[in-house]
Amino acid sequence: LKMVGVSMFTFLYGLQVGDPTGLNVFYRGEGFLLRGGLGVGGVVSYLNMQGWMGVSFVKPVGNLKTFVGVEGVMGFRIGKGMGVGIRIPIGGFFRGDPKSPLMLGADVSPGLVVVSASQAHPSLSVSLHIVHSPPEEKGTVEEVVERRVPVSGEGTKENVVNVERKKRPTTAKKTTRRTGSTDKSPPKQREQKVDEEAADREYKRGLQAYAEGDLERALKHFEAALRYNPKHEKARRALERVRNQLGK
């Protein structure tokens, strides 16, 4: 798996070692964390083979992200049969280097498992975690995408000319008869109307498409924003970024 979208909504994956030992997949949201996984255990977690899924609420404390939540668990114990249960994960994750893609963590999850629909057994999950977690970028979708758009070449003559050349309407050449007479009336110039509200609307739609990974749709919205307002610098930078990514 890899990072999907922007930082406010990100898929993560990781390994946990303990009881149980297994693999986890996380969905990191704004203030919450969804977790699902598969593992083996049975010493204190009771079930030998088990899968789990649940939601936890995250509270940042400095570089530490503490969490507490609730999870459902299902699996089987050798000689006993299938079982289902519930547990309460309590723990935290720590990132030593703010730029590192890895986080270390630990949790303790007391719970209860019911086997064969009659026998209830206490369980305790104790695990250490290593999670591949790209550093979060704080801010709105617009702010995050703006930080990802490079400012190199911003406002250069070459970039401005290239964009304007594509947007400039073509006009038919005016022909005159060779009678010696000249037309001294000023040529008619087509004034391009600027609609800043429509340009901003298209620009934001482009940002949303970019955040969703749809570069072709983002390209169309950024181009539309420049048609409404050729001086929209944010749309111009974003358009240049998308064109570079698409190889256009």
The overall average pLDDT, rounded, is: 78
Unreliable residue runs: 1-9, 150-167, 170-177, 179-183, 185-189
Tally of individual helices: 5
Work out the helicity level. Answer: 25-40%
Number of E-type strands:
9
Beta-strand percent range: 35-45%
Overall geometry comes to: elongated
Largest sheet: 9 strands, antiparallel
**Alpha-carbon distance between the two ends:** 28 Å
Q: Based on helices, strands and strand pairing, what is the structural class?
A: alpha+beta
Structure, explained:
Strand 7 and strand 8 form a beta hairpin. Strands 1, 2, 3, 4, 5, 6, 7, 8 and 9 form a nine-stranded antiparallel β-sheet that branches. Helix 3 runs antiparallel to helix 4. The longest helix is centred in the C-terminal third of the chain and has 16 residues. Helix content is 25%, strand content 38%. The chain starts with 9 loop residues before the first strand and ends with a helix. The radius of gyration is 29 Å and the shape is elongated. It is α+β, with helices and mostly antiparallel strands. The N terminus is likely disordered. The protein is built from five helices and nine strands, in the order βββββββββααααα.
Task: Show the helix and strand layout.
Layout lengths: L9 E10 L1 E8 L3 E9 L8 E13 L2 E14 L3 E7 L2 E5 L7 E14 L3 E14 L8 H8 L8 H11 L28 H16 L3 H14 L4 H14 L2
Helix pairs in contact: 3-4, 3-5, 4-5
Task: Describe the structure using short key phrases.
single chain; about 250 residues; alpha+beta; nine-stranded antiparallel beta sheet; 9 strands; disordered N terminus
